[in-house]
């Protein structure tokens, strides 16, 4: 999997003739702007940034790149947290700012067809104004693109009840690494013709082709929703509440968790009256019809009290509920204000193991003398331990790396994974084998090589040069 990095003047002119002069960027300032994404401590300059206007233009670009072995890094809004859009082997960064149209709303088949550059929040607002609902709601939805969401298989606050992006992707148009157009799926309810290539492309992080059109499933917009909030003096009580809610056969739309450090950071940032003394907070939301919503939210509040909540109440109004959800969505931004570098992880475990995982994270932070706050989608077992550090302090960074490795290891030992929704990118590539094993990695490599034999699509992502050695700290294998 070798790529040759080379975008000479003649080639620049070829790209310019495809996309037009206004859609090619190559100044130092532009290269710098596209040399990093939302991931701390990763940076590399691209050679050229292109903003194509159509699938056909992408076909022409990819054909040149295939012939000349130029790396292509598709980039939505660059909000991924795994260095997935850092052009670590140079080449072309492909933007979708000229491909951000909502193309069709099909009310009979309940689908919407969009270009990849549509902003997630804009899509959500558009379908809701038509009485329909697109549930996946990553906290970054005000900036992230649908193309990025599909390529990362992103989750969100509503994942527990409604699933993640893959559960809504019905069809894709993809430009393959050879520059051919492939149409996958359709507006069908059922389709078992051949291997499930649609699912292979979802979550492929720009390594198997360029996604140029997306058809998504929609569902009717729920009539009612209500939010409850519970505070706890112990993390274990909050974790027990999560398990007890599910054991009581309630599937809330949202069951979000913040620890004391995160509560304090959000309060500093937003001043919304969160109690800084609480050790943990759960945000619980249900949607559906009025009767069911009322019943479920009251039951969840009662369960929280039975499990030791110091306070468990219903949000007084929709406005208060929106403020609380905005507070939760702002957790990462709020924590980022505390120290120069924020490294957010994505360890995910079966929901029954949440208490053990949260406790292990705290022990690991203590052991390595680090500031790690945790928040996340508790109902999904998807936690975001967030390390507040400073990349300029090499000694501290070495401790951070050790701590994160230990967190991944514990997650795997508890039956979990190294990433629940953020993807592997370049950052977590050295750990992927811990999850997949050698056989799994070899199969993935075979798939990549057969689709992209020259490794021009987002090289260096998902597949690491070297796998990190497993640590033996908790008696795992
Ligand atoms: C504050 C904050 C909160 C976040 N909250 C969440 C959350 O709740 N849930 C969650 O899952 N994630 C979350 N994320 C991570 C991130 O926002 C998601 O992964 C999101 O889907 C990335 O979208 P993007 O448009 O920024 O894509 P980018 O970061 O630009 O790209 C992501 C990946 O997709 C590939 N790609 C992009 N477009 C295409 C295309 N058209 N064809 C092929 N490949 C493509 C890129 O090469 C890259 O590998 C959060 C990030 C931040 C900064």
Automatic annotation (TrEMBL):
SUPFAM superfamilies, sorted: FAD-binding/transporter-associated domain-like, FAD-linked oxidases, C-terminal domain
Cofactor: FAD
A matching Pfam family: FAD-oxidase_C
Keywords: FAD, Flavoprotein, Oxidoreductase
Recorded superkingdom: Bacteria
TM regions (residue ranges): none
Record flagged with keyword Oxidoreductase: yes
Domain FAD-binding PCMH-type residues, every copy: 42-221
Name of the protein in question: Glycolate oxidase subunit GlcD
């Amino acid at each position: 999997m070798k790529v040759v990095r080379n975008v000479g003047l003649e080639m620049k002119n070829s790209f310019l003739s495809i996309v037009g002069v206004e859609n090619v960027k190559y100044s130092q300032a532009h290269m710098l702007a596209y040399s990093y994404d939302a991931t701390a401590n990763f940076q590399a300059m691209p050679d050229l940034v292109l903003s194509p206007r159509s699938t056909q233009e992408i076909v022409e670009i990819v054909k040149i790149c295939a012939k000349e072995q130029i790396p292509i890094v598709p980039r939505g809004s660059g909000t991924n947290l795994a260095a997935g859009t850092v052009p670590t082997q140079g080449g072309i960064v492909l933007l979708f700012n000229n491909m951000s149209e909502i193309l069709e709303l099909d009310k009979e088949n309940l689908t919407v067809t969009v270009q990849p550059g549509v902003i997630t929040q804009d899509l959500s607002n558009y379908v809701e104004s038509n009485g329909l609902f697109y549930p996946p709601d990553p906290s970054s939805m005000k900036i992230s693109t649908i193309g990025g969401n599909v390529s990362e298989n992103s989750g969100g606050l509503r994942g527990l009840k409604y699933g993640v992006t893959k559960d809504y992707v019905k069809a894709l148009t993809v430009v393959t690494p050879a520059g051919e157009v492939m149409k996958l799926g359709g507006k069908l309810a059922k389709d078992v013709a051949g291997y499930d290539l649609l699912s292979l492309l979802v979550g492929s992080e720009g390594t198997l082709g360029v996604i140029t059109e997306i058809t998504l499933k929609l569902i009717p917009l729920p009539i009612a929703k209500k939010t409850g909030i519970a505070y706890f003096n112990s993390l274990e009580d909050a974790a027990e509440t999560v398990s007890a809610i599910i054991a009581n056969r309630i599937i809330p739309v949202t069951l979000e968790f913040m620890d004391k450090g995160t509560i304090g950071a959000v309060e500093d940032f937003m001043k919304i009256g969160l109690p800084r003394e609480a050790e943990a907070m759960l945000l619980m939301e249900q949607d559906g019809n009025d009767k069911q919503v009322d019943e479920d939210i009251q039951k969840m509040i009662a369960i929280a009290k039975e499990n030791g909540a110091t306070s468990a109440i219903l949000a007084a109004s929709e406005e208060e509920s929106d403020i609380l959800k905005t507070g939760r969505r702002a957790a990462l931004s709020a924590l980022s204000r505390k120290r120069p570098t924020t490294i957010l992880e994505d360890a995910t475990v079966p929901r029954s193991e949440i208490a053990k995982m949260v406790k292990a994270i705290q022990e690991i932070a203590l052991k390595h003398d680090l500031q790690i706050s945790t928040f996340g989608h508790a109902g999904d077992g998807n936690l975001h331990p967030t390390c507040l550090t400073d990349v300029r302090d090499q000694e501290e960074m070495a401790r951070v790396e050790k701590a994160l490795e230990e967190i991944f290891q514990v997650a795997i030992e508890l039956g979990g994974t190294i990433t629940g929704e953020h993807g592997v990118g370049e950052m977590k590539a050295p750990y992927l084998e811990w999850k997949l094993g050698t056989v799994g990695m070899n199969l993935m490599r075979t798939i990549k090589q057969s689709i992209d034999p020259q490794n021009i699509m987002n090289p260096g992502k998902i597949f690491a040069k070297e796998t990190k050695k497993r640590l033996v700290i908790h008696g795992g294998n």
